[in-house]
Amino acid sequence: MTQTQSQSSVATKRISTYLTLIVLIVAALAIIAIVIAAGVYASDPNNSTNVLTSGFFALIGLVALTMSLFTLYQSRRQTAEMKIEIPKVMTTIQCTNKSCDAKTVREFQRGDYVFKELDTPCQKCSGRQMITAVYKEVKEKEKTYNV
Ligand SMILES: [Zn+2]
Protein backbone atom coordinates (compact mmCIF):
# COMPACT_ATOMS: atom_id res chain seq x y z
CA MET A 1 0.00 0.00 0.00
CA THR A 2 1.40 3.40 -0.94
CA GLN A 3 1.39 6.38 1.40
CA THR A 4 -1.34 8.26 -0.47
CA GLN A 5 -3.67 5.27 -0.30
CA SER A 6 -3.26 4.81 3.46
CA GLN A 7 -3.71 8.55 4.09
CA SER A 8 -6.97 8.78 2.16
CA SER A 9 -8.41 5.67 3.80
CA VAL A 10 -7.62 7.13 7.24
CA ALA A 11 -9.40 10.36 6.26
CA THR A 12 -12.41 8.41 5.00
CA LYS A 13 -12.57 6.44 8.24
CA ARG A 14 -12.41 9.63 10.32
CA ILE A 15 -15.23 11.29 8.35
CA SER A 16 -17.47 8.23 8.53
CA THR A 17 -16.91 7.82 12.29
CA TYR A 18 -17.81 11.49 12.87
CA LEU A 19 -20.86 11.21 10.62
CA THR A 20 -22.02 7.96 12.23
CA LEU A 21 -21.84 9.62 15.65
CA ILE A 22 -24.07 12.53 14.51
CA VAL A 23 -26.48 10.14 12.82
CA LEU A 24 -26.74 8.01 15.96
CA ILE A 25 -27.44 11.10 18.13
CA VAL A 26 -30.15 12.30 15.73
CA ALA A 27 -31.65 8.79 15.58
CA ALA A 28 -31.66 8.59 19.40
CA LEU A 29 -33.40 12.00 19.65
CA ALA A 30 -35.91 10.87 17.02
CA ILE A 31 -36.73 7.74 19.01
CA ILE A 32 -37.10 9.84 22.19
CA ALA A 33 -39.53 12.14 20.32
CA ILE A 34 -41.58 9.14 19.18
CA VAL A 35 -41.60 7.71 22.73
CA ILE A 36 -42.76 11.11 24.09
CA ALA A 37 -45.45 11.21 21.40
CA ALA A 38 -46.68 7.75 22.37
CA GLY A 39 -46.59 8.68 26.07
CA VAL A 40 -48.51 11.93 25.58
CA TYR A 41 -51.10 10.19 23.42
CA ALA A 42 -51.49 7.27 25.87
CA SER A 43 -51.95 9.59 28.87
CA ASP A 44 -55.23 11.00 27.50
CA PRO A 45 -56.27 9.99 23.96
CA ASN A 46 -59.48 12.03 24.20
CA ASN A 47 -57.69 15.35 24.80
CA SER A 48 -57.33 17.11 21.42
CA THR A 49 -54.27 19.11 22.60
CA ASN A 50 -52.54 15.87 23.58
CA VAL A 51 -53.33 14.31 20.20
CA LEU A 52 -51.94 17.39 18.45
CA THR A 53 -48.79 17.40 20.62
CA SER A 54 -48.19 13.68 20.14
CA GLY A 55 -48.74 14.01 16.40
CA PHE A 56 -46.23 16.86 16.29
CA PHE A 57 -43.62 14.88 18.22
CA ALA A 58 -44.24 11.77 16.13
CA LEU A 59 -43.77 13.78 12.94
CA ILE A 60 -40.48 15.30 14.18
CA GLY A 61 -39.31 11.85 15.26
CA LEU A 62 -40.15 10.20 11.96
CA VAL A 63 -38.60 12.97 9.84
CA ALA A 64 -35.41 12.97 11.93
CA LEU A 65 -35.19 9.18 11.85
CA THR A 66 -35.68 9.09 8.08
CA MET A 67 -33.07 11.80 7.59
CA SER A 68 -30.50 10.07 9.79
CA LEU A 69 -31.00 6.74 8.05
CA PHE A 70 -30.78 8.42 4.65
CA THR A 71 -27.55 10.19 5.66
CA LEU A 72 -26.09 6.90 6.89
CA TYR A 73 -27.03 5.21 3.63
CA GLN A 74 -25.51 8.05 1.57
CA SER A 75 -22.26 8.06 3.56
CA ARG A 76 -21.92 4.30 3.16
CA ARG A 77 -22.34 4.63 -0.59
CA GLN A 78 -19.88 7.53 -0.75
CA THR A 79 -17.29 5.57 1.24
CA ALA A 80 -17.68 2.66 -1.18
CA GLU A 81 -17.20 5.00 -4.14
CA MET A 82 -14.12 6.59 -2.61
CA LYS A 83 -12.53 3.17 -2.13
CA ILE A 84 -13.09 2.32 -5.79
CA GLU A 85 -11.78 5.68 -6.97
CA ILE A 86 -8.28 5.01 -5.63
CA PRO A 87 -6.47 4.01 -8.81
CA LYS A 88 -3.70 1.49 -8.95
CA VAL A 89 -0.49 3.00 -10.28
CA MET A 90 1.48 0.71 -12.53
CA THR A 91 5.09 0.84 -13.73
CA THR A 92 6.26 -0.56 -17.05
CA ILE A 93 9.84 -1.78 -17.18
CA GLN A 94 11.60 -2.47 -20.46
CA CYS A 95 14.93 -4.00 -21.27
CA THR A 96 17.34 -1.49 -22.84
CA ASN A 97 18.80 -4.22 -25.03
CA LYS A 98 17.16 -3.63 -28.44
CA SER A 99 17.41 -7.29 -29.49
CA CYS A 100 15.69 -8.43 -26.27
CA ASP A 101 13.10 -5.73 -25.53
CA ALA A 102 11.54 -7.71 -22.65
CA LYS A 103 8.66 -5.86 -21.02
CA THR A 104 7.32 -6.27 -17.48
CA VAL A 105 4.53 -4.48 -15.64
CA ARG A 106 4.43 -4.27 -11.88
CA GLU A 107 2.81 -2.10 -9.20
CA PHE A 108 4.31 1.34 -8.66
CA GLN A 109 6.98 1.50 -6.00
CA ARG A 110 8.34 4.54 -4.18
CA GLY A 111 11.04 6.27 -6.20
CA ASP A 112 9.84 5.03 -9.59
CA TYR A 113 10.10 7.50 -12.45
CA VAL A 114 10.23 7.31 -16.22
CA PHE A 115 13.76 6.72 -17.68
CA LYS A 116 15.03 5.44 -14.35
CA GLU A 117 17.58 2.66 -14.80
CA LEU A 118 17.07 -0.29 -12.49
CA ASP A 119 19.72 -2.21 -10.59
CA THR A 120 18.03 -5.54 -11.24
CA PRO A 121 19.12 -6.97 -14.60
CA CYS A 122 16.82 -8.37 -17.28
CA GLN A 123 15.73 -11.95 -16.58
CA LYS A 124 16.12 -12.95 -20.25
CA CYS A 125 19.40 -11.38 -21.32
CA SER A 126 20.65 -9.89 -18.01
CA GLY A 127 20.82 -6.52 -19.74
CA ARG A 128 19.97 -3.20 -18.11
CA GLN A 129 16.31 -2.44 -17.45
CA MET A 130 14.66 0.95 -17.63
CA ILE A 131 11.26 2.30 -16.53
CA THR A 132 9.44 3.41 -19.68
CA ALA A 133 6.03 4.27 -18.26
CA VAL A 134 4.23 5.11 -15.03
CA TYR A 135 0.44 5.23 -15.32
CA LYS A 136 -2.84 4.90 -13.50
CA GLU A 137 -4.70 1.70 -14.09
CA VAL A 138 -8.35 2.35 -15.02
CA LYS A 139 -10.83 -0.38 -14.21
CA GLU A 140 -14.35 0.62 -15.25
CA LYS A 141 -15.74 -2.83 -14.57
CA GLU A 142 -15.03 -2.53 -10.83
CA LYS A 143 -17.53 0.33 -10.47
CA THR A 144 -20.31 -1.66 -8.83
CA TYR A 145 -22.47 -0.37 -6.02
CA ASN A 146 -23.65 -2.25 -2.99
CA VAL A 147 -27.32 -1.45 -2.50
ZN1 LIG B 1 16.63 -8.21 -21.88
Verbal overview:
By secondary structure, the chain is α+β, with helices and mostly antiparallel strands. It has 2 domains: 3-85; 88-138. It has helices spanning 3-43, 48-85, and strands spanning 88-95, 103-107, 117-118, 129-137. It has a 4-stranded antiparallel sheet with strand order 2-1-4-3, with no helix packed on it. A hairpin with a 7-residue loop joins β1 (88-95) and β2. α1 packs antiparallel against α2. The longest helix is centred in the N-terminal third of the chain and has 41 residues, at 3-43. The chain is rod-shaped. Residues 95, 97, 100, 102, 122, 124-125, 127 line the site of zinc ion.
Please mark out the parts with pLDDT under 50 across 5 or more consecutive residues, or reply none: none
The strand count comes to 4
Radius of gyration, Cα only, in angstroms? 29 Å
H-E order: HHEEEE
Count of discrete structural domains: 2
Give the neighbour order of strands across the main sheet: 2-1-4-3
Main sheet overview = 4 strands, antiparallel
Helices and strands, with pairings:
Layout: H1 3-43, H2 48-85, E1 88-95, E2 103-107, E3 117-118, E4 129-137
Antiparallel strand pairs: 1-2, 1-4, 3-4
Helix pairs in contact: 1-2
Q: What distinguishing features does this structure have?
A:
single chain; 147 residues; alpha+beta; 2 domains; 16% strand
